[in-house]
Amino acid sequence: MALTRIAQAERLPDEIKSLQLQQRVDRKSNLKRLFPFLDNYGILRVGGRLRFSNESYTAKHPAVLPDHHPFTDMVIQFFHYQNFHSGPQLTLSEIRQEFWPVHGKRVVNVVLRKCIRCFRTNPTPIHQPLGQLPAGRVRPGRPFLITGVDYCGSFYLKPARRNAVPTKVYIAVFVCFTTKAMHLEIASNLSTKSFISILRRFIGYLGMPVEIHSDNAKNFSGARNELKELHEMLNNQTSCNAICNELSQKGIEWKFIPPRAPNFGGLWEAAVRSVKTALKKEIGLQQLSYDHFTTLLVQITATLNSRPLSPLSDDPTEFEALTPAHFLIGSAMKALPDPNFISKPTNRLDHYQQTQQIFQRYWQRWSKQYLTQLQVATKNLPMNTIQIGSIAVLREDNLPPLCWPLARIIGLHPGLDGVVRVVTVKTATGVYKRAVNRICPLPFDEYQRTKTSTELPTI
User: Fold this and answer.
1) Angle, in degrees to the nearest 10, between helices 104-112 and 88-95
2) Can you give the pTM of this predicted structure?
3) How far, in Å, are 121, 439, 446 from residue 404 at the CA level?
4) Residue 112 neighbours by CB distance under 10 Å
5) Tens digits of per-residue pLDDT, 149-187?
6) Does the bond joining 154 to the residue before it have cis omega, within 30 degrees of 0?
7) Which among 200, 228, 419, 458 has the fewest CB atoms less than 10 Å away?
C-alpha cells in the first residue's frame, strides 16, 4: 500500500489533488472513464461499475498503477512469474484482480518483451538492411573471372558390378558473378585433393579466375591453404622457367563468407537449389550410371545457362531474351545453330569485328536489362544498432532455443556502407565470428545493462 501510494503521488499528482478537493479529474486525464476515488488510506482506486457484484473489494476497486514507473513494472513481473511466465492476456487479467495499470495492454507487453526466460524460448535475431552488391556482380568482365563455388549432394550412382555398393558422388557448382553462368563438375568425395582436381578441370575449361568465393567448408579451406603454399613456392623459385613465372603471377584470391551465414552466398545457394530441383524432377530416386549421370549434368548445365537474365524486350528486332549462354558461346545453348553468313557481303565490318560487335551488344543489353533489375532491394529492413559489450543468444543449428549459448559481442565488422552485418562474439567455449542474423540480443533496459555489465546473466 505504501509503495502504491508513492507511485501514484509521483505520476498522478493532478488527479489526486482534484479528488482531495472533491472535484472530478480533468477531461484530458487517462482516468476519466474509470471514475476514480480515494479510499480511507489515500490510495487512488477505480470506481468503475461493479459496485454491486459479488467480487472482492480489490477486484471491484483495484488500485491504479501509473504507466512508465518501476513499481508498476515490478508488479507486472511478479504476476508474470507467479503464473509460470504467462502471456500478456492472462498476466493482465491476474493483475486486474488487485491493480489497474494505466494503458494495461501496452505496459504489460513492454514488460513481457524484456523477460529473459521468455526471450530464450523464442529469440529474435537481428535483421539489417540489404548491403551493396559486390563489384564482381555489377561490372562487366570475362565469364567466370569472379566465381562462387559450392557443393550439393550426395547422389548415388549405379555400380559397375552387380551386387556392389552404389557409388556416392557430389556435384561442385561454379557460378559466375557477372553473368550468372553455371558450370557443374562431379566430385567423388569431399576431400581437398578432389576439389583441387575439380578446380584444375574448371580452369582448363573456362580459364583462370581472379577470385573464388565460397563458404567456410573444411575442404575449401584446405584447398585454399594448398594453393597458397603452391603460389608461394612458385614465387620463391629463382630457377623457374617463364611458364612457371607467368603462373605464379596469376594467384587466385580466395574469399570466404562469414561462418554459418548462407545468406552471404545467395548466388551459389540459388544455383544449388536449381540443380537439385532439376535432378529431382529428372531422375527422382533412380540410380544412373556414371556416363548417363555425366551426360545429364551437361544437359542440365545447358538448360540452366539458357535461362533468361531479364524479361524479353519489347523491341521487335530482338527475338530472344539475354541468357548466360550468350556470354559463353554467343547464343542460347538450346538454340539451333545459325546458318553460315561468311560468304555474304557485309557493310564495312569483317567477321571478327561483327562478332565483337555482337558481344558488345550483349554487354549493353546486360547493363540496360539485367543490371537495372539489381538496383531495387527486395527487402526494406531498418538498420539495427549493435553495441560492443551487449549480451546476446547465439543461434545454433540442431539445438532447441533454450540450449543456445549466451555470448558477449566483443567486435564489430561494418561493411563499406557502415552497416554492421558481421560481429565477433565470445562465449564460454571460445571466440567466434558470426553474421548478425545468428545472434539475438537480449532485451535489456538501461538498468539491466548496468547491472549485468560485468558478468553474463544467470538464467
Assistant:
1) 120
2) 0.63
3) 10, 10, 24
4) 20
5) 888 878 888 887 777 788 888 888 999 988 888 999 988
6) yes
7) 458
